[in-house]
Inverse folding.
């Protein structure tokens, strides 16, 4: 069995106003009453006998409540007073776990639509991790996405990691057939990960070790101990430098639900979403999310309408990436709405 490490950070800025500081996207109960966090917990219960959630102090109570409601067993909560990226979070998880424990490290905000393929993928990753490899999950790309990192591979061997490419290089990598999307899911023994951290990122290793000692002795982390850990991703700190890294290619149906288009597609495809507070007349291919008040659509197409008490978003499908600009405007002009 493994220990499930759930990385609960992330603000979901591209899903504003639905996602905000108080309730980021991974905590929204959009999927037949369940959140992405709860779905992540439940899909890994068969393979894992314990859960460690790495979470911001602000959301610790809500995360704990949702995980217990989802049936999490042997749950521990490690609350960060300040976020320091994935390398810090994963290092802390490794330090507070037994060296031989296999860690299955997943983000809290991904959606998997093919549970059987996912389970097979994780089983293969666990076998490779048992052999002292650091294992990442790679996804077969279906279009030239520029917002993901890529992994060039051969079998289970990683040739190189590629940062988010421009459109031209993304197309070339898709055509080559030997690149995968980097899913951000890892599987490894805690002790092996710490060995690699000590070799390739000694500053993170030292500072995270001191912070973990503080958590083990006091049951909480101070802001000073967290801020002492360099802020960088686990890819940059370890995965791109280690010779222990293996990849498991997977064809699972995966989404990071990183835009309203992705959310709308997921709700329609997997959850038969229907909004009884929306009426449509001579309109088509629209999605209304939120049920605070009636939304009437007349003679319009290809819209996403997000209906919340604080703000109303009306967006043409295909413009989801521009939400970043909107979020920046709100941050500068109406920060109370975040």
């Amino acid at each position: 069995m493994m220990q499930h490490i759930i990385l609960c950070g992330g603000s979901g800025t591209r899903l504003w106003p639905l996602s905000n500081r108080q309730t980021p996207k991974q905590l929204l109960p959009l999927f037949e009453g369940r959140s992405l966090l709860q779905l992540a917990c439940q899909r890994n219960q068969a393979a894992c006998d314990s859960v460690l959630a790495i979470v911001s102090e602000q959301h610790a109570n809500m995360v704990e409540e949702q995980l217990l409601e989802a049936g999490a067993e042997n749950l521990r909560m490690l609350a960060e007073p300040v976020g320091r990226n994935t390398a810090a979070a994963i290092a802390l998880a490794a330090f507070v776990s037994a060296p031989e424990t296999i860690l299955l490290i997943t983000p809290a905000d991904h959606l998997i639509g093919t549970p059987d393929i996912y389970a097979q993928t994780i089983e293969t990753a666990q076998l490779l991790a048992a052999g002292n490899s650091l294992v990442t999950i790679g996804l077969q790309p279906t279009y030239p996405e520029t917002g993901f990192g890529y992994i060039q591979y051969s079998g289970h061997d990683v040739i190189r990691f590629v940062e988010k490419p421009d459109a031209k290089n993304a197309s070339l990598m898709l055509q080559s057939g030997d690149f995968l999307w980097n899913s951000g899911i890892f599987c490894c023994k805690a002790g092996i990960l710490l060995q690699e951290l000590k070799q390739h990122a000694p500053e993170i290793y030292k500072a995270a070790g001191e912070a973990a000692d503080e958590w083990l002795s006091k049951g909480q982390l101070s802001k000073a101990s967290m801020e002492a850990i360099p802020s960088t991703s686990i890819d940059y700190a370890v995965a791109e430098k280690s010779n222990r890294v293996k990849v498991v290619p997977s064809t699972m149906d995966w989404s990071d639900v990183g835009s309203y288009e992705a959310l709308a597609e997921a709700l329609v495809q997997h959850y038969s979403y229907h909004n009884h507070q929306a009426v449509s007349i001579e309109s088509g291919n629209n999605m209304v999310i939120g049920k605070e008040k009636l939304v009437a659509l007349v003679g319009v197409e290809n819209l996403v309408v997000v209906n919340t008490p604080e703000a109303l978003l009306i967006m043409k499908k295909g413009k989801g990436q521009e939400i970043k600009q909107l979020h920046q405007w709100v941050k500068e002009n109406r920060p109370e709405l975040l």
Notes: DSSP finds eleven helices and 16 strands in the chain. The chain has two domains: 2-255, 274-337. Residues 274-337 form one domain. The longest strand covers residues 179-189.
